[in-house]
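G., the chain you wanted modeled:
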Amino acid sequence: MPSIRLPHTGVLTAALALLFAAALPPAQAAEAGFGPLPPHNPYAGPSGTATMHGDTGSSDATPLPGPGAGRTTSKRIPLQSACPTVLVGADTYPVALCTPILTRVPTVHLLDPATGESRARLPIAKGSLLGGVYAYLDNADRLVVVDGDKNLLRVAHRRNADGDWELYVDRSLSLAAAIPGDDSVTGLAPDWQGRVWFATAAGVVGTADESTGAVRTLTLPAGERVDNSISTAPEGTAVATSHATYLLRAAPDGTPTVTWRRAYERGPARKPGQLSWGTGSTPTFSGPTTGTDYVTVVDNASPTVNLLVYRTDTGILVCSTPVLLSAGSGSENSPIGAGRSVFVASTYGYPYPAVPEGAGKSMPASAAFTGGLTRVDVRADGSGCDRKWDTTVRSSAVPRLSTADGLIHTVLRGSLLPGSDATSLLDHYSYAQIDPGTGAVVRRHHLGTSSLYDTLQMAGTVAPGGVVYQGTITGVVRIAPE
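Predicted structure as tokens:
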């Protein structure tokens, strides 16, 4: 473990939020009052930086402010790897989970918080394309991940006898007996009792109790795949399969049980710009009262997808609202959820270089990447939802809402040919801040040109100090106030 740990309290975060909000224009300051985010999971790292989607509720929102309105700098950290997961612990050290371009062996990097440079690396066993993508930081700043050999690992960092940083496996539990054949874990998250929930591509949902070594599983209906991560809240664990959304809870012995199941429209086939046939959503918990009043996913209806909002306690459908109307309608990204507001970004037509085995052909075979972003608000009385705005913002990353600065942070992909929807290896990429009240881009910072900067619809993480870490196809970009 690190020899020096910084305290992680809500006091500092709240103070930063108040100071930053005081400097915002009135319209943006008003937007900062979205309502509560999901409660902090005591078995996870800091809210906003502990998971790919910010917290175990997958809100894709953060209580930390971004770089602000002043001058911004950026730096590319070349790791010769695609780095979809960059998390930050209470000690402020970023931990990145990357897949090298050549070997495809997942590798954990410990990054220097001052520079973003890799200070230590640790390869783990190779799995499937999506296996080893999702991970989280626990409350001891350890990366929790399942490797290709189906071992549940906790990877810690410390300084060695020479004073250099090193990464090491602090704890390991085999899940092999519970996961059949060539199946692999696609998502995992802790619950409020300290168990680790996991879901596999073939539809096995399980819990692992590391204090006893007990692993309990439930197999979902045949033909239902899990192609995204899972989310946890005090009310239970949300899992979205290729056919339906579930809320599950654990029996006294840890065995998962279904509380409710709601099927959705999955369309005739996978759409271009998606990695699977079905929803592209990791389920999002959000809500105005507890921060977990609702569970939200986007379906795969054709030609227009719908935002589906369910009551967490009963699974009753609050609304089914068409979204992404201004451009190609399809999404591989988890929605942002904060209070009563939900934001959905389009990935329709995004040129992924590869899709998982068995994903099937897309219909149509290809499409232009036009972009799109929609805001939907749940009505105050819970009687339905209203679409507030719909734009053609060309986001090439999973957007992140900061409730501290009242802005959406993402990366935009620009075409080599101005005004064109065509994509090429020479496209340019810009960090952007978006006003959630209108959907307008209010600030940009050029990151670079060429596929070296391709963010490939990966999630960025807003870290302390207004720093944004954004994974790319070749490493990480560190964006910070000058």
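Residues 10-22 form the longest helix (13 residues).

Shout if anything looks off.
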